[in-house]
Design brief:
Length: 327
């Protein structure tokens, strides 16, 4: 069970309210991907198990949870399509029906609560979202539903309104640095500076970018953004991106939006210009000079407004990127 980081304040408050039987039955963790929302839920469960059972029984329950076989804990996330061997594009209504069945069944272990984790609620389609809403509207005693969202605006307002909302903000630089160096001891300070801004302080995102060698497309992306016409660079980039699965493409889109934000920031004369690897910063500086602020904002809005439909309807990634790069 990968523990990237621990948000101590949020975690301690959850445990305190849980122990005093004052915890809201539906809790929505939201904020950029990779900040440790799932890790915090995992730590909440682990600490709650430790508080409820003696050492011998705790280890038994911990192993069940760690292997995703604990009878009182249900994890809902996108499933693998048996035909394509790829993740389905959404969490289906059949999966939410499992949630309802799980909630209504008698508890297997009476000394511990029932806990549902939906990771992420952004992946619900309209039918599954409406079905989940009914469970949120009719809370069951000693049952808690945790929802994770990386883009809270994609959720139904009625779902948001029925949950206790816990916001996760970007980490302080020192915490980010410590986590990245734990995974990549030889990384340079300049690289850490770059990844901190590119991911808005999200170590999980930074780790994904590094492990997927996604920074290799960084320079190519900047080159394509510098020119509006369709050229070999754009063809090459869209061919590469069209091979990404949805999760990797989501990570790339986050990287792309960060590039646009940095391009606007660099236009500010007071923005520090010595914090990145020289060639990376020079490329960002060139992009910032070549694109107007309005153009950058239009591109950012295109991504924000169309990203949800891209994944919901499984649209063509290559066409999506060509439209972004040439409009």
């Amino acid at each position: 069970m990968n523990k990237i980081l621990e948000h101590t304040d949020q975690l301690n408050k959850l445990i305190k309210n849980y122990q005093s039987k004052n915890l809201h039955t539906s809790i929505l963790f939201y904020g950029p991907k990779g900040l440790g929302k799932r890790s915090t839920i995992n730590q909440f469960i682990i600490k709650s198990l430790k508080n409820n059972f003696d050492e011998k029984n705790y280890l038994h329950h911990y192993n069940l949870f760690n292997n995703n076989t604990h009878p009182n804990i249900l994890l809902i996330e996108k499933e693998i399509d048996k035909k394509s061997n790829k993740f389905k594009s959404t969490i289906t209504i059949d999966q939410i029906r499992k949630v309802k069945k799980f909630i209504n069944e008698s508890v297997s272990i009476s000394k511990f609560s029932k806990i549902v984790i939906i990771d992420s609620a952004d992946d619900l389609n309209l039918n599954s979202a409406n079905s989940l809403l009914k469970s949120l509207e009719e809370p069951r005693k000693n049952t808690y539903i945790f929802l994770i969202s990386h883009q809270i605006s994609s959720l139904l307002p009625t779902i948001r309104s029925r949950c206790l909302k816990v916001r996760f903000n970007k980490l302080a630089y020192n915490n980010f640095e410590n986590i990245i160096k734990t995974f990549f001891p030889n990384i340079s300070d300049n690289e850490i500076n770059l990844y901190y801004d590119l991911t808005n302080g999200s170590p999980g995102q930074a780790i994904s970018i590094i492990q997927e060698n996604m920074i290799d497309v960084f320079d190519l992306t900047l080159e394509t953004l510098n020119y509006n016409k369709l050229d070999d660079f754009k063809i090459q980039l869209t061919e590469i991106l069209s091979q990404y699965d949805n999760e990797k493409f989501r990570t790339y889109l986050s990287l792309l939006k960060s590039i646009l934000i940095l391009s606007i920031n660099i236009k500010n004369p007071s923005y520090k210009t010595n914090q990145y690897l020289v060639n990376k910063f020079n490329s960002l500086d060139k992009l910032s000079n070549n694109l107007s602020k309005d153009n950058i904002i239009d591109r950012f809005n295109f991504l924000s407004n169309n990203e949800t439909d891209l994944f919901k309807y499984n649209l063509d990634k290559k066409l999506f990127m060509l439209k972004f790069l040439t409009d």
